[in-house]
Amino acid sequence: MIEFLFSVITSDHYWFIVLRSTAPILLVTLGAVISEQAGISNMALEGSMLWAALVGVIVSAATGNVWIGLAAGLAASVLTAWALWLFALKFEANAVLAGVALNLVAHGGTVFVLFALTGDKGISSSLPSKTLPFITIPFVKDIPWLGGVISGQNIVVYIALIAVVVMHFILKKLTIGRRIKAVGENIEAARSAGINPDRVKLFALTAAGILAGLAGAFLSMGYTSNFTSGISAGRGYVANAAQVVAGGTAVGSIFASLMFGLFDAMATYLQNVGLPPELIQALPYLATIIGFIVVTVIRDRKEARRKKRLLMKDAD
Amino acid sequence: MNSKIGPVQAVKLFFTDKDKLEPALVTLLAAVFSVLFGVVLIFLVSKNPFQSTVNFLLGPLLRTYNLYYMMIAMVPITFAGLALCIIYQSKHLSLIIDSSFYMGAVVATAVGIYFPLPAIVHPIVAMLLSGLVGALISLLPAILKIKWRANELVSSLMFNYVFYFLGSAVILYFLRDRNQAIMSSLPFRSSFALPRLIPNTQLHAGFIIAAVFVVLVSIFIYKTKWGYEIRMIGANQKFATYAGISVPTVILYSHFVSGFIGGVGGAVEMSGLYRAFIWQMDPSYAWDGVIVAMLARKNPKFVPVSALFLAYLRVGADFMSRRGDVAFEFITMLQGFIILILASDKIANSIKANRLKKAALAKTGGVA
After folding, report:
1. In this structure, is residue B42 part of a structural domain?
2. What ipTM was predicted for this assembly?
3. A121-132 residues labelled b (16+ CB within 10 A) or e (exposed)
4. Quick one: B301 and B339 in the same domain?
5. What is the pLDDT of residues B155-189, one digit of tens each?
6. Quick check: B168 contacting A, CB < 8 Å?
C-alpha cells in the first residue's frame, strides 16, 4: 500500500490530475474570497457554476463556437451573482438563505432546461457541444516529469493560475481592493469615507460570478465534455470552506484548493486498488472540514492573544 | 391561547391583529406567487400547457390515490420541517439534518434486516436507534461552532457529503442484496413494517407519528424551559448571555433534539414505505425542511400546513411530469423561489411598512 502510494505520488500523471482537479476549486475559491472580503457570503457560487456549465454547453452546441459558449456561460454565472446582490442588498434578504435559494433554483432549473431541450434529465450528450482547448507548451513539454505535469492542460487551468496573480494584485495593490476590504471590515466607516458599499459589493460579486463561471464552464467543457445534472458536486460550498482556510487571500487559495485537489486526484487512483469508492469520494470533503477546523483554531488563538495583549495594554 | 377566548373570538382577534395577519398574508402570497411562477414555466416549455397546468394544480386533489400520496409525502417533510424549526428558532442554520435523516434510514435498514424483534417493537427500536445516531451526527457542526466558531452552515454542508458517501458505503458493503441487479439492501423482516392506516393504500402509521411529533415539538419550543432558552438566544444572544443562559449548552441540545427528529424521520420513512433500502441518491429533505420551517415561520404548529402545501406541489409536479413533457425538477425551482421571497425582509415586510407609512402620513396630516 505504502509502495503504491509512493509510486502514485512520484508519478507525473498524478500531479497532472491534481492540477486539473484543483483548477475549478481554485477559481471558485477566489470567487468566495473576493465576496467574503467585501463582506458578503456568497453561497450562490454553486448555482453560478451550474448555470455556467449548462449554458456554456447549450450555446457552444448551438453556435458551434466554444468561445461564444464560454461567454454565454460566464454571463449566466454573473447574472446569478447579480441576483444574489439584488436580493441580499436591495430586498434585504439574509445573504446565506438567498444564496441557498438561488442554488435550488439552479439545481432544478438546469435539469428543467436540459430536459426541455433534449428530453434527457441526466446528461447533455445529445448536444454537439464543444470543449475548451488543451494547450501543449513548446519546450516545457520536453522537460522530464515537469513537462508531463504542466503541459497539455486545459486552457482554464492556466487561466486559474493567472487569476491568482490578478486577484492578488486587485486585493493588495488596487484602490478597488482597498475599498473592498474597507467595506468588508467596517461598512459604516467605509460609507463615511465616501465609498458606496453597494457598488463595491456589486463589483466583488461580478468578479466572483466570472470566476465561478470559468470553473463551471471548465467542468462541462474541459474537465468532462458534457453537462451532467449536479455537475458542480458541491464545489461552490467547498469554496466557502476553502475561503476560510485561505485566510481571505489569493495566495492562500492555492493551498486551500490544493488540499481538495490532492485528495480528489488520489480518489481516482485509489478506486483502482479495490478500496470502496464511496469512502474515497468522501475524502476531499473530509480533508476540507479538517483544514477548515485547523485554520479556525489557529485564527481564534491569534485573536485571543491579540485581545489579551490589548487588555494588558489597557491595564498599563 | 387564553382559555377565556373561544375559537370564534380567536379568529376575529387574528384578523384584527394586523401584526399577526400581515405575516400570514405575505406567506400566503409567496405561496400563490410561486404556484403562478410554476404555471408560467409550464407555459414556456410544454407543448400542451393547459393539460399540464390542470394536471399540476388539480391532479393532487381530483384523484383519491393522489390524496393518499400527499399524506404520505407529508411525513418526511414534516419531520425535516420540525427539525429545522428548532435549529431556526435559535437563529442558527445548520443543514446537518440531511445527514441525520439519511444515516437514520441507514441505521434503520440494519435494524430492519438483522434484529429479530416482534412487530410494533421492531420499528420503535429502529426509530430510537436512528434518532440517537441522527442526534449524535447533528452535534458535530454544533461542536465545531462552539469550540472554534466554525460556521455551522458551511461545516454541515461538508459533513452532508461525507455522511452520504459513508452511508452508501455501509449499504453497499454490509447490507446489500447481491442477488439484485439494481442497488438494493437485503429485504427487511416483516415485523419491521409499520401498520397501514387504511388497507390497500400506502398510508402508514408514520403519519400519526409525525402528528405526535408536531405536538411534542410545539410543547418543547413553547412550553418548556429548554424551548424558552432556544427562543431566547434566537431573539438576542447577548441578552440571553446576560440573563444567565449558557449559549453553548443551548446550541448543543437544540442540535441534539433536531438531529434526533431527523433520525426518527429516516427510520419512519424506511419502516413505513419501503421493504428494502433502495435510495440511489440522497433524497435531501433538509432543503424541504428549510422551506417548511420558513413557511411555518418557525412555529411547529404550522408545520403540517406548510408540509401539506409542499406535498401538494410535489405530488402535482410528479403527476404532471408522468403525463406530460415538463420535468419534475421544476418543483425545485419553485422551492428556491419561495425561499427567495420569504427571506427578503423588504418584500416580506412590505405590507407592514406600507401600513406604518400611511399611519405616519395620516398623523402628520399628509405632510411628510
Report:
1. yes
2. 0.87
3. beebeebebbbb
4. no
5. 899 999 999 999 999 998 888 888 888 888 999 99
6. yes
